[in-house]
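User: Good morning. I'm curious how FE2/S2 (inorganic) cluster would be positioned relative to this chain. Could you predict the structure with it bound?
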Amino acid sequence: MSTNRRGFLKGLAGASAGAAATGLAGCAPDISPAPVLDATEDNGRVVLMVSRYPELAREGGAVTLRVPDRPNVLVMHPQGTQYAVVSSLCTHRGCPLGFQEGEAICPCHLSRFAIDGRPTHPPATIPLTTFSSSYDSELDELTINFVAGEEGFPSVVDGKIFFPFTQFPQLRTAGGVVQGTPEGYGKLIFVFALDGGGYSAVDSICPHQGCGVGYQEASQLLRCPCHEARFSRTGAVLQMPNTGDTIGPIKTFTVTSDATGVTVEIV
Ligand code: FES
Ligand code: FES
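Assistant: Good morning! Here's the predicted structure, ligand included:
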């Protein structure tokens, strides 16, 4: 296999690096965030030769994988040839997660998550985002796919995603929303039919520290669970993070429509 297909290890930072990145104090002393591993992607995929990374190779081990322009992810090795990949920040207040006894665990207030992202212990109630991965035991290679999409959701074709009205009739009506993860982009997006006519398409990665935002139907806004930033359906900041930081709008995409459906340009 050529080296350009492989994830490239740049450095293995101490566990404290992730904790320091959040600026959050008061973590439980006996639980550490997973150590940070820097890697690069090729066509939306990172390939790791597992045996090169002792923290990941051992059963019960995990690393926090940091890839430019992708959300940080927690790569877990619960047992045998089983691996799982989830977003690395706790959905309670955004602390970097560790891995213990087969679950992702937050050092800050002890939320726990199953390896499929489900919260299993409060205070967190929102699931972690999961990422597609596969392990080739002959090659000892773990492939993490950042651009895998949701089955049945439209894919990116030539940089665009088309949402036909026949499949997404809610986009014909003001207030309608479609959300999902397109193959070729690999991150959740939202498409809104706006009240005044027209459309917007908005990314799900919070510009503060990269947590995933969710759409709240009742209030018609996007909320980040990590530090409570709020965004409008056109991506504008309605409420800054509760850390005192100042952030800009969430990423948006160009949207056009015709009689047959809505097209979102993914750039
Ligand atoms: S930040 Fe994770 S439990 Fe509070
Ligand atoms: S990551 Fe801090 S408000 Fe979203």
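The first strand starts at residue 12 and ends at 13. Residues 90, 92-93, 95, 106, 108-109, 111, 123-124 surround FE2/S2 (inorganic) cluster (ligand 1) (CB under 6 Å).
Let me know if you'd like a different ligand tried.
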